[in-house]
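[SOLVED] Need 3D model of a four-part complex

Original post:
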Amino acid sequence: MIPRYARPEMVAIWDPQTRFRIWFEIEAHACDAQAALGVIPKEAAAAVWKAKDAEFDIARIDAIEAVTKHDVIAFLTHLGEIVGAEEARFVHQGMTSSDVLDTAFNIQLCRAADLLMAGLDRVCAALKARAFEHRLTPRIGRSHGIHAEPTTLGLTFARFFAEMDRNRARLRAAREEVATGAISGPVGTFASIDPAVEAHVCAKMGLRPEPISTQIIPRDRHAMFFATLGVIASSIENIAIEIRHMQRSEVMEAEEYFSPGQKGSSAMPHKRNPVLTENLTGLARLVRSAVVPALENVALWHERDISHSSVERGIAPDATIHLDFALHRLAGVIEKLVVYPERMRANLDRFRGLVHSQRVLLALTQAGMTREAAYAAVQRNAMRAWEQEADFKALLMADPEVTAALPPEDRRLFDLAHHLRHVDAIFARVFGADQTV
Amino acid sequence: MIPRYARPEMVAIWDPQTRFRIWFEIEAHACDAQAALGVIPKEAAAAVWKAKDAEFDIARIDAIEAVTKHDVIAFLTHLGEIVGAEEARFVHQGMTSSDVLDTAFNIQLCRAADLLMAGLDRVCAALKARAFEHRLTPRIGRSHGIHAEPTTLGLTFARFFAEMDRNRARLRAAREEVATGAISGPVGTFASIDPAVEAHVCAKMGLRPEPISTQIIPRDRHAMFFATLGVIASSIENIAIEIRHMQRSEVMEAEEYFSPGQKGSSAMPHKRNPVLTENLTGLARLVRSAVVPALENVALWHERDISHSSVERGIAPDATIHLDFALHRLAGVIEKLVVYPERMRANLDRFRGLVHSQRVLLALTQAGMTREAAYAAVQRNAMRAWEQEADFKALLMADPEVTAALPPEDRRLFDLAHHLRHVDAIFARVFGADQTV
Amino acid sequence: MIPRYARPEMVAIWDPQTRFRIWFEIEAHACDAQAALGVIPKEAAAAVWKAKDAEFDIARIDAIEAVTKHDVIAFLTHLGEIVGAEEARFVHQGMTSSDVLDTAFNIQLCRAADLLMAGLDRVCAALKARAFEHRLTPRIGRSHGIHAEPTTLGLTFARFFAEMDRNRARLRAAREEVATGAISGPVGTFASIDPAVEAHVCAKMGLRPEPISTQIIPRDRHAMFFATLGVIASSIENIAIEIRHMQRSEVMEAEEYFSPGQKGSSAMPHKRNPVLTENLTGLARLVRSAVVPALENVALWHERDISHSSVERGIAPDATIHLDFALHRLAGVIEKLVVYPERMRANLDRFRGLVHSQRVLLALTQAGMTREAAYAAVQRNAMRAWEQEADFKALLMADPEVTAALPPEDRRLFDLAHHLRHVDAIFARVFGADQTV
Amino acid sequence: MIPRYARPEMVAIWDPQTRFRIWFEIEAHACDAQAALGVIPKEAAAAVWKAKDAEFDIARIDAIEAVTKHDVIAFLTHLGEIVGAEEARFVHQGMTSSDVLDTAFNIQLCRAADLLMAGLDRVCAALKARAFEHRLTPRIGRSHGIHAEPTTLGLTFARFFAEMDRNRARLRAAREEVATGAISGPVGTFASIDPAVEAHVCAKMGLRPEPISTQIIPRDRHAMFFATLGVIASSIENIAIEIRHMQRSEVMEAEEYFSPGQKGSSAMPHKRNPVLTENLTGLARLVRSAVVPALENVALWHERDISHSSVERGIAPDATIHLDFALHRLAGVIEKLVVYPERMRANLDRFRGLVHSQRVLLALTQAGMTREAAYAAVQRNAMRAWEQEADFKALLMADPEVTAALPPEDRRLFDLAHHLRHVDAIFARVFGADQTV
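Solution:
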């Protein structure tokens, strides 16, 4: 985890204190269930809750683990120090360490998913706001980096909104994948613990019982989770690349917000670098790097091997923390993006009407010219416009073959409004009935 | 695509003839819609359907493309040769090549997903059948490759069923992701084509209109699709690894089916290699290799760049064909897997009862011994059993401290049935009400 | 393998005929060595060479394999049909299939590496030629996509040359990695074959004996090989991205060559798409996708498992064929790239001298102004130039504080030559003594 | 970076204090060179060295960076606080931040490579020692996890030595890749700084000048570096998997060292889990995850974009720290691996001689029997041995057809020594003349 790309809310989820708190709650709820089943004394279960508001001493737990080489035993020993060794002897009865570890891990992932969802919500809100703001701000559409036909900046934001909205649905599904818990004992047979314990703990912790676990919760769930984060990261890259292109010196259609006092480039006013979106491009690569190891984690030996563990100690905090940071950084960039509509218009007009050539061609064909004749007419005027840096429309209007074919109303082929007439329909498809920001 | 790892059904989806057939249908339906809108003559739309049952001449289309360097134009030219150039001049009106290419690509992916689903269904059916067959076949559960506690082979199959059943849900979601079509023109603004055309074509082809497209359908959808295939492939590896372990010489709990006449190893009867599951392990790597490039395909420049195209020409057929083959190979392996319950039992008994040591420990604790005393009692007998290769149970029953603590009925701690008593409950969770195979 | 991204030379290396030819040579040389050792009759060894110029019947071999399910046995059976079953019975004596398969595979990889090297050579030659051609063609250098300071197009080509030249060294090392052969029997102990056979075959086939093999040649070698191809692919992407940027409508500093008759965009003369470099971007992703599975192939079970095989059937032809194609496509793009020096100059001058602001700042500091005062002077004039779209140099020369500090000769701060004075030195570092193209 | 998988030596390399120390040295040497060129006063250069033994105040630098949003400026400001603002004003003259950042980064990578080399050396030494110790310890060789023919444990260690020795060569090459420095100014043209400064700094810091840089050192170098780490990680996984297999309950040929007092499993003496090698398997995945983002970092925009930076902030410390830890963990595992030669022998004899069937077949053929007759003879005895759990050799020696063919001396076909006779030759190939440990 790279501290400078981390928000405290997400870091807290992966903090040892949080993890031990979750472990405690799992163990305590399990004791309640065991007591209800008559497996352990009710008083023992009640006693465990004495640690409800205790702060766990991380250093102490680490010290114990250094001796026992076992994290859960270290925690339980420390718990005994808090609630009393005698009362604590019934804790963890019939459970295996993974019952605690995996259930807690999934709770952390669910919480992480909730934070990520908030980040996606903020990104979507920003995209929606800017989409409506620039619904009809004309801009040249580009394929292959080359001017094609007009579109609007609002449509650009709207498509990113649609993409990020899909990512919300994906993240929701990914969260569902890992919202399971398992308290099923050493190899998942419930040989030494009643399934009722699992049911109780899961209900209390907001999870579904894993229908069938081994010693662990199956890792295809986590593979899907991290693969989904990889897709979201790629969408962030997609938006970042668009903004970087808009900001490049020759395009200058938009800029990341640059605070007035921001040091460094004020001597070179043209030198405002899209460092935030470049950073997002890199963060996307970093988050994506969790996908392959998560996929490699699926195939474990028999009822479990522990090779997945070190991987998850790395990718789980890293991928969620960096993605969370990236979503908020992206939201900030979108919210404050400085847009230059005049530059967009200047770029749109750069080729003096040539971007309308396809539409002229179509109109001539529809007006009855053969495709070949229409093509020849468009081509000769387009080439002339290109080579002489002349106005394409003027040339066309001076070409008798063209004017003979086109009725006067069609001469408005260069009208931008033509390209924008379906924008509302598209917005309705993307944003639905709620056309308010 | 590696021909030996390909089934003809899936290969056919990626065959040029299939692709051109889909292109034709898209264009013909688009003509119908354009005719209904009055954009093109009804007769022209009707004429296009003359090619309905025609075989397209791939070599001819290739020859035209070699000149025009444009695949869609080559196809349209050839279509004109079939239906007549005059009738064909209204085909593709207002459309851009990507309207055809992307919509067709998604149709191919949907069909591929349908075939993959059939493969998953077959795998699930095989797993379910074997799960019920071996519901109570005892087997040692292993963590870290080391004997832990007893489980059953049926539980192993049941958990793989649950995993593959999850993959069905994932594949269903992945298919939904790519079940969209777009006929929205050069930069997605519908400037030269009415959205009604898209609606009609999508309805006819079983797709939803893409709410907002640029020149292309957004690639986050395909990233999610291929990421899902990567997860499924990893699950295949998971099962393959289990079978490879079961078949290794020292374990020999199961073997891939080996036909009586199968040449080569009959002089070495012990040498039956799990080559199918090893192959599946490799195929899993191959399918997974599509995930990263699919993620890298998301960030395209502006309204599109064509860098995704070459990637998809490779990964789309390769990943779907190899995964389809792998699913059916896996199903065959499971269906015909030769199981050796006696070997399972022999392995289970290998350590003369030591696998029950945890349960004894728990029973002693519950019988009132302190954890320390119970531990000491179990340990001394376990170490003796281990070092002297003696029977653990016999030693325990000869230990006065143990027999003093344990009531006679608890001496049945070594009863396997104890470990199997929740199997039915787990099966009910996995297979639901339908407990028939 | 995608046929349209394949050159016949590389495809031929992976052709079954080539593979069987190599298998034959390995077997025949092995017979010679076995005969020399007296293990098999000299006549038998001589007889095998009867197949020296034979065309192998692939369909026949496939038919035999369909029965025997073993590729090497199928080949040997067919070889027996050519040279006579009696003479053929000594072929393959003491060898295991992998002795042939792995040695042949490495020969194919070496030949592939040789072809790739030729491709790299062509790319390097093209880059060198264009570097010298444009050694002093001024161009704005950009960091973050934003204008920074002047450089030359020749330096751009020169750095790509240096990168591709490094790739030559890497490919040379990668070829060395896989230039080994092994004829060491079932588990690599030479139990049934003398090491002299391996030595003879390797000498004849241009390989080094693998110092220690198991049944197979260790796969860390191949992992390194494919990782190297992944690096080369990334360098291709690097150059491709540069060209795509140069060609985008607002930059237009260079274009992929567009043949005069090339159909499609002549009606839109501004619409010349960098489709070749976009394609190269995608091919880079495709080639890179071989890296991870090659790394996953390293860890095999004990003396071998065959999981690597299906992976290599895919990635070996695919990665080498696509990379080979990509190198030649890239070379063609560079050789014929249409360069627009005037556009470069226009872009360079776009900000009316502001790109020199750093240099002015430095000069003022060196002239004795404090950094703060110098900064303030530069900043006020830069901001004025930016906001009023005025000439930066003119404004500076009208600023008394500046002219007081700067001696007249320093007023030539805007001289481009200043930025180009080390170009020759850099060229000497990159191209060495050989400054001819 | 996961603290529990980190050694302080490697962590120190990535410590801010180390980084600032390197930055300082680069700046101070650059001042010397600038002073020698007469660009800055000799006194200013000398003054900078006042900070030679200073501890940099990280918190202070962070505080400045929080304001300036620029790490190098923050450092320089703090440096000014140490050496005096006046003296410090000549520091960094003509340089761009990346001159410092990239040169320092490469120095860190070189130091990391040196530490990794020490780790590889330790692994190699351990492997060599164990190889010689078990040069002739017989062990069954396995292909596909199935018993094949005898080999020795020494050969297993020897081949891992050879693999790790290759990794030393690769790491050496990878270190060379990144052992370059660049002090070439904003876009790499040396416009504001003489190449002599770069030469001086590089000489002092143990680097070669980068022949041609832009604002940054080209990232194909780093891609190759991290790809190499990925290969080394895969080799670690390869050895880890072998040990995990040896330790599994049914094989038990070796075990990770288990300290006598180690808590937890002493009540289950059979339950000694190979947790270290499982952990290494996971760490291998983690280290490998750096490869793809490093490859994606190669293609930057024009003279640089900063997307690589966040990636490297993650992967550079993470991959080197975890790989370093893994190498030492692996070395420890090998050094202390508990080997059970008797279990190896028992496994070898498990199939009562059937592992020699191939050799018998060969002997019969060489003795003049047709392949078919020999095959039939071997097969019928092998099947009988298999089905009746009888001794293969005894059956063969009782088969008249066999005894008729085989001369008495060939009856020693079951002699293990036959399989070991080339071990010395192989050791000579692997370890060369130095056959001492």
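Edit: The interface with chain A takes residues 140, 142-148, 244-245, 247-251, 266-275, 278, 292, 296, 347, 350-351, 354-355, 357-358, 361, 375, 378-379, 382-383, 385-387 of chain C (CB under 8 Å).
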